[in-house]
Amino acid sequence: MINLKTEREIEIIRANGRILAKTLELLGEKIKPGVKTKELDRLAEGFIRREGAYPAFKGYRGYPASICISIDNEVVHGIPGERMIEEGQLVSVDIGVFKDNYYADGAFTFAVGRVSNQAQRLIQITQEALKRGLEFVREGEFLSDISYAIQSFVEKNGFSVVRDLVGHGIGINMHEEPQIPNFGPSGQGPILKKGMVLAIEPMVNAGSFEIETKEDNWTIVTKDDSLSAHFEHTVAVTENGAMILTDGDPSGKVKSFR
Ligand code: MF3
Ligand code: CO
User: Within 10 Å of residue 243's Cβ, how many Cβ atoms?
Assistant: First the structure.
């Protein structure tokens, strides 16, 4: 069953999404060569808690940190630790914010200093793929039109989308129905309805779409060691388009992409 949210519920998720956006902004200033990933985790946790919220990933299925930091060939779920950020890296940060009984979920991939042309292009294509998906977030559209838009854009540009991990509904739980694959045919249900809140999150690999889990049982890496990028927004479906809840825009304006 897909939970429809009231305007009040969406307002709460948007408030949490603003905290999330501010946390990402703060991390964007701090992600520099020499910084340990656990320092970034501490910073994010402190900021989120000072806002009266809780870092939703902490303790989720036993996850040991507050945020996920996934570098280069790491796709998602990298655990912050002693590792230092280095020039030229591609650093994906995934954050969950919980407050007033609702979740917001978002991710962004940062380039550290000068990165390879391939890394730069991967970031750009992944971010654009998310935008292409968001064009189909509107009451009356097929859910899988989002998936198809993401996959076709990514593959047209020579990269691949991860198949084993998907986006999801979100609200009173971090993961709710429906699942939102970043691949698949267009024109498949369910039909989007006003009040659905969705976390859309393309994970894009420079090489093959295949992934594996490292010995820490969390970190997901590309099987062929190619680079990977990840962007995620939590959005609400409206009659006029997507209301992006995790971009920190206080106006809550509906983005009409078409
Ligand atoms: N951000 C992930 C998602 O979108 C969840 C992270 S789970 C954690 O579904 F345990 F790693 F925190
Ligand atoms: Co998510």
Answer: 23
How many domains, the chain?
A: 1
Best probe residue, ligand 1, of 16, 105, 179 (max atoms within 8 Å of C-beta): 105
From the CA of 67, the nearest ligand is: 1
Q: Quick check: is 252 in a domain?
A: no
Ligand 1 center–CA 109 separation, angstroms: 15
Predicted confidence (pLDDT) per residue in 65-100, tens digit: 999 999 999 999 999 999 999 999 999 999 999 999
In this structure, the dihedral spanned by the alpha carbons of residues 174, 226, 121 and 33, taken in order and rounded to 10 degrees, is 80
Task: Answer yes or no: are the C-beta atoms of 9 and 243 closer than 8 Å.
Answer: no
The average pLDDT across 27-44 equals 98
pTM of the model: 0.97
What's at 28, amino acid-wise? G
CB 24 within 8 A of CB 106: yes
Task: Please report, for the domain that includes residue 46, its CATH number.
Answer: 3.90.230.10
What's the one-letter identity of residue 69?
I
For residue 96, the enclosing domain spans 7-244
